[in-house]
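Case study 2.
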Amino acid sequence: MKIVIVGCGRIGAGLAHALEKAGHDVSVVDSDPSAFSMLNADFKGKRIEGIGFDRDVLTKAGIDRADALAAVTSSDESNAVIAQLAREAYRVPKVIARMYDRRKADIYRRLGVLTLSSTSWGIRRAVELINYSPLNAVATLGSGEVNIVEIEVPALLVGHQAKELMIPGEIVLSAVQRGNKVIIPTMGSTLEKDDVLYLSVVITSTGHLKRLLGMDN
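Prediction:
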């Protein structure tokens, strides 16, 4: 994949190396040329000096053919602008933004931007989101036997009951984020449009979960 990273601090540089090591074509943008010293000498990707929301700068970084963009500067406002620009103007398929303010993170997630607050941020987690699929594991428990999966409720399940997503001993709907609230659902809870579901799933039952969600095509 072609990936653009805006911000070359510790996270941006670490993300650039991790993604390049995974075989991706990476460009890094930063307004401070000295920031590129965070990159190892063997980094083969592009280093672009400039403001991350400047269209000419983004064009030099290859945003027109980017498969993903990560906005990881130290400013929520800059990350939000860059993420929106990438998603709306350039139609970049996968956009993630670092957000220190959890409330802003929730807002931009609703707009289709994958977000992480400072408390949950990490290079490994960012790599996972770059490789994002609709079935997104946000945590792994034990030695990998159980995943906590986050997904926006599929249209085919809106109006259905929570029990339709549960298989005893295999899959449990642990929580539902609805607007600014998180609720613990009962078996009879009704799923609503824009709900974000958090499911505990035994790793060997992932296929069952995909079928329940209509993702097995």
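DSSP finds six helices and eleven strands in the chain.
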